[in-house]
Design brief:
The chain is mostly helical. The protein has 2 helices and no strands. Helix 1 packs across helix 2. The longest helix has 83 residues. It is rod-shaped, with a radius of gyration of 41 Å. The model has no long low-confidence stretch (mean pLDDT 83).
Amino acid sequence: MAEGKDDFIGKRVNDVRKIFGMAERDFMALMLIISVLGNIALIYLLLGQSRDLNNEIKAEIRRQVDPAVESKVSTELPKQLNEAVQPMKEGVEQGMQKLDTVLNKVINKE
C-alpha cells in the first residue's frame, strides 16, 4: 500500500483523530456534535415507536369494532329492510286482492 493513500479504516481513524483533536481545541463544539447526533438517534427511535404504537392501536380498533359492526348489521339490517319493503308488500297484496275480485266477478258472470 502506498504511504500517501489510506484505506477505508485509515480514513475512519483519521476522522476520529480529527474529532478528538477538535475536542482538545473546542470542547463545546464536540458536545454540540454529540448532542445533535444523540437527538437524531432519539427522534429516529421515537418515530419508530410511534409507528409501532399506531399499528397496535389500529389492530385493537379493528379487533373491537368488527364484531360490534357485525352484530349491529345482523340485528338492524333485517329490521330496516322489513320497514323498507313493507309498503311494497302491502301494494302487492292489494293488487292481488283486486285481481282476485276481478277474476271472481268474471268467473261468476259465466
